[in-house]
Design goal:
Chain A: Belongs to the MlaE permease family. Chain A: This is Protein TRIGALACTOSYLDIACYLGLYCEROL 1, chloroplastic isoform A. The structure is a homodimer. With about 350 residues, chain A is mainly α. Chain A has a domain of about 220 residues. Chain A has 13 helices and no strands. The termini of chain A are far apart. At the A-B interface, helix 7, helix 8 and helix 13 of A face helix 7, helix 8 and helix 13 of B.
């Protein structure tokens, strides 16, 4: 479907209505660039027209049309939009009909649309608290064990390298500071986000994808609920609240496992490690780690939910959406990590100097 | 099913045979601990027996029985095994019938069994080369873009922190060495493994899970192919071959992006960075990074394939298997990273001293 994937459920809904009664006089035909992925063709009687490349504003208007419950005005309004859309464009229909943007651009666009909708609805206070608490219980307590285990091993792995090299340089006393800064600024937020992306992000994409494929999302619309309110916003809020807390726990346990390993294997006293870490750290390091985690949580949940609600093609599509959601979440985390590091840490720092 | 999940397809196969003809006089009943997850109960007429907690050796014998193609002999031999199994055990059946190991222990056991089978068949030379090349093309070239992009951003993020802190310490000239060692020993193998686990590991689990749920794995057995030869070994070999090469590429691009950022933003010359890196690095650092990557690749593919072939419960089970496979692959990568770092890097190193 060349229209944005967000509006696809609307057309399916209209098509089902039309197939039940035969009174419709619609006159619009939609050209599908991925015929094998469509579960059912949506055809209207009448002369054929091509509805190509609508502007991003259209999905909201099409979405509003849905609430009228009258499919005939819906089709009529779409027809109007099509005529209006042709006037400003100087391109010939021949060229437009041959070209179609790739599907992942539409999905990327749906990420932005979904993010905007979540922000707007959260600011309006339209939050389904029971769902949010359910999702928070999934993201938070059930992920603590895996995040802590991963953070402990990452801390020990980096301790081996830092203690090994810095001992010969005569910087024994600064090992704690280096570990504390590396953990608070980079490792804790990123490791927590990686585990949550693999565990929670793929679960979100698989769930919403299955709901989309089995038309449960359309059922929610029929029942009068907004799927963004009911399904997406609780998940986004849950990850934004849970990840900063998980990062704090991971930072604490990572430092503890580093100190234990340095003391047990390499003979560095725990007191030296802790004292050096205390002198190197500032409150901004902890605050920036939590802000980073919140941004990562938002990226994970919005990308996973957007990929879930734009799933096509049955069980195979659900698997593909899940895999793509995890990969794009991971890439988004690393890009955001660099951007936030560049913004948060300007100029030369002097915190490591305090513990030499 | 309390028997190992590896033997579950065999029983399903036997059950289908028995249901087609009604001549069988078997006398074994299997007690299932997850009734809601089984698509179909396997029952035989006759006196009921409880088949509890077989030893790990049994799956191989049960698997061998499959090749006879005679369901009656299969059931008869199972009966023998059950009687033999009771004799050495002093535990009362009442206690055994109340206790059942959790499902993830059986899946963990199937990981070890599958790993052993892959090693044995690889050493025997039973490699399906066309499938291996297909999987290698999926793991290798199609993942290069994502791995390189991720590695570039990780390199830049760590460069910000290292240059910022080391400048004030007067260790400007050692920034390249620190980055090179951090990349070659920890960051390149781990970042590559994380991206491959999210992208390839989940795809493996989803594919094999779907095949298992839709009984395509049983069809392979009917056609005389061994699913381990045809499906699992090519995937394991592909990841073991591709990950070391991906790690080399990621290390190169990570160092390049670090040098460009340090020169462009922080004024540390590229020549200083690369000269310091050259003096800090040794060939063992590169070799150990590639060995680490190969171990990570083996962990990712064996865990994902084992979770895929032990999927139960339809589309929901496929989603759960995919999510669990990614999480356990990530945890396995971090644990193996610590273990290999501890084994490979003993004692105090003096490589960083060379570049001051």
């Amino acid at each position: 479907m060349q229209t944005t994937s967000y509006s696809h459920p609307l057309f399916c809904f209209s098509c089902r209505n039309i197939s039940t009664n035969g009174k419709s006089k619609g006159s619009v035909k939609f050209r599908a660039p991925y015929p094998s992925q469509l579960g059912r063709k949506c055809g209207f009687n009448g002369r054929p027209r091509v509805y190509i490349s609508p502007s991003p504003i259209k999905p909201n208007r099409l979405y509003v049309l849905h609430n009228t419950g009258d499919n005939h005005p819906s089709a009529f309004s779409v027809d109007d939009e099509m005529n209006t859309n042709h006037a400003p464009n100087g391109m010939s229909p021949t060229f437009l009909s041959n070209w179609s943007p790739p599907r992942y651009l539409w999905r990327g666009l749906s990420v932005l649309i979904l993010a905007g909708q979540v922000v707007v609805k959260t600011l309006k206070g339209k939050i389904h608290w029971r769902n949010t608490l359910q999702q928070l219980e999934r993201v938070g307590p059930k992920s603590v064990g895996v995040c802590l285990l991963t953070s402990a091993f990452v801390g020990m792995a980096f301790t081996i390298q830092f203690v090994r090299e810095f001992t010969r340089l005569g910087l024994n006393r600064s090992v704690g500071g280096v570990l504390a800064l590396a953990f608070s600024r980079e490792l804790s937020p990123v490791v927590t986000a990686i585990v949550v992306a693999g565990r929670i992000g793929s679960a979100f994409a698989a769930e919403l994808g299955t709901m989309q494929v089995s038309e449960q999302t359309d059922t929610l619309r029929v029942l009068g609920s907004d799927p963004v309110d009911y399904l997406v916003t609780p998940r986004v809020l849950a990850t934004c609240i849970a990840l900063p807390l998980l990062t704090l726990l991971c930072f604490t346990l990572g430092m503890a496992s580093s100190a234990l390993l340095a003391d047990g294997v390499y003979g560095l006293s725990i007191n030296i490690i802790m004292d050096s870490a205390q002198r190197a750290l500032r409150s901004w390091d902890i605050i920036s780690a939590m802000i980073k985690s919140q941004v990562f949580g938002a990226i994970i949940s919005i990308v996973s939910c957007a990929w879930g609600v734009t799933t096509l093609g049955g069980a195979k599509g659900v698997g593909e959406s899940t895999t793509s959601a995890v990969v794009i979440s991971l890439v988004g985390i690393f890009i955001a990590d660099f951007a936030l590091s560049y913004v948060f840490f300007q100029g030369a720092g002097d915190q490591l100097k305090n513990c030499v």
